[in-house]
Design a protein that fits this description.
The protein is about 25% helix and about 20% strand. By secondary structure, the protein is α/β, with parallel strands linked by helices. The strands form three sheets. Strands 2-3-5-6-7-8-9-16 form an eight-stranded parallel β-barrel, surrounded by six helices. A hairpin with a 4-residue loop joins β3 (about 65-75) and β4.
Length: about 400
């Protein structure tokens, strides 16, 4: 998940007490072994961005079973809140989640906050120290667990990340240390790339079995597939790929993760609630055919990229670009459905703008697929763009009652 650039100035966290730093040790090997058993299913998670306009009191905690506070960033010595953020929102977030029995988790890292992750887990002593630092913050503020949001393991992401060929191996060691430190009752989650975990050869690991025993859940982030960096327009989060387009989709990504040995019942399918805006060269939509499949998603780009490429689903309705039920384009926009990728998009011919997003229908399709594949549930990025019908579609899909 890509987030706005954060200031390089970070607020130092308050000194932590001995009690907050004391790790919890699993009572037996049996406790750890139970992590191989499926955790609770039908989960609906949401990432709550602390930098956004949505206050903790406005977050839809009642519609989620897992709530992620996004985020704290890494520093050379541990973690910190970004500049301008205080523990006031942290406390309000945890209280809001607990009030409706949604489990609050602390997200660490992210697009701009993963600079030091590689270094912090590079040696045995550093792994132990970092695990204790995370536990201290979790205990101090009442979180139920932690989420490691490492989007580019073993690869460069934001441009200034520390990178090592040993990142994947060290991560496997770290989640084991993290479980031993956090004990059997705390939740451990990782937000991981759609393409899998990058190994020392810069290819996705063929096996992820080493990570599974220590993690309760992972979210597979199947979004940002097409964006401002792409050669054509395309779906932000395609359910299915089209030959000739990107080979990454919900179906291909989940298939690859399962083939790597990660348990289906520990996987949350990431679903975006934000869009990507593209300029097009033409004021007409052209149908293309790839391998016998017809698609509307891949249009030739215009010369000038939009200044602000992101809009949430909720904003599309508020701006009256979409009708309240999300079924009809408005204000010069026409809604299209691409049957090849099972995603909607809006097109404005007079402005030559193409906007890819997820809606109630695509969300329901993805949640239904999560149920079909035996996944643990879905996870929205982020809470600010999700509407009540979006949450309802996810719930219905996981229950097997969604009808497109």
């Amino acid at each position: 998940m890509k987030i706005p650039l954060l200031s390089s100035l970070l607020l130092a966290l308050p000194l932590l007490t001995h009690a907050e730093l004391t790790p919890t040790t699993p009572s037996s090997h049996h406790d750890l072994a139970t992590r191989a058993i499926c955790p609770a299913g039908n989960q609906i998670g949401m990432y709550w961005p602390a930098w956004g306009a949505q206050k903790p009191a406005e977050a839809p905690f009642a519609r989620s079973s897992l709530a992620f506070y996004v985020l704290v960033v890494t520093t050379a010595n541990g973690i910190a809140l970004p500049d301008g953020h205080t523990t006031t929102d942290v406390k309000a977030f945890v209280a809001g989640a607990r009030a409706v029995k949604s489990k609050p988790l602390l997200t660490v890292g992210g697009w701009t906050g993963s600079v030091y992750l590689s270094a912090l887990i590079s040696t045995s002593s550093k792994r132990t120290a970092f695990a204790k630092t995370l536990l201290a913050f979790v205990n101090k503020h009442g979180f139920d667990g932690v989420d490691l949001d490492w989007e580019y393991i073993g690869r460069q992401g934001a441009g200034n990340n520390i990178v090592s060929k040993l990142d994947s191996a060290n991560l496997a060691k770290f989640v084991a240390v993290l479980r031993a430190t956090f004990g059997p009752k705390k939740l451990l989650h990782a937000s991981l790339p759609a393409v899998g975990i990058t190994g020392p050869d810069r290819l996705s690991l063929k096996s992820t079995k080493a990570f599974a025993p220590y993690l309760d859940y992972i979210t597979v982030m199947v979004y940002d597939i097409y964006g401002s960096w792409s050669a054509t327009t395309g779906p932000n989060a395609p359910f299915a790929e089209c030959i000739g387009g990107s080979s990454i989709s919900v179906q291909s990504s989940i298939t690859a993760w399962l083939a790597s040995g990660f348990p289906a019942c520990k996987i949350l399918l990431g679903i975006p609630t934000y869009s990507y805006l593209f300029s097009t060269a033409s004021n007409k939509i052209t149908t293309k055919t790839y391998g016998g499949k017809k698609t509307l998603s891949f249009q030739t780009l215009g010369r000038v990229a939009p200044v602000d490429p992101h809009t949430t689903y909720k904003q599309l309705i508020a701006n009256k670009w979409l009708s309240a039920d999300g079924k009809v384009g408005m204000s010069g926009w026409t809604r299209y459905w691409d049957s090849c990728t099972s995603t909607p998009f809006l097109f404005n011919p007079s402005k030559k703008l193409f906007l890819s997003y997820d809606d109630v229908t695509s969300t329901g399709i993805k949640a239904s697929y999560a149920r079909k594949m035996g996944l643990a549930g879905v996870n929205f990025y982020d809470s600010t763009g999700a509407t009540t019908p979006i949450f309802a579609a996810a719930k219905a899909g996981l229950a097997g009652t969604f009808k497109a």
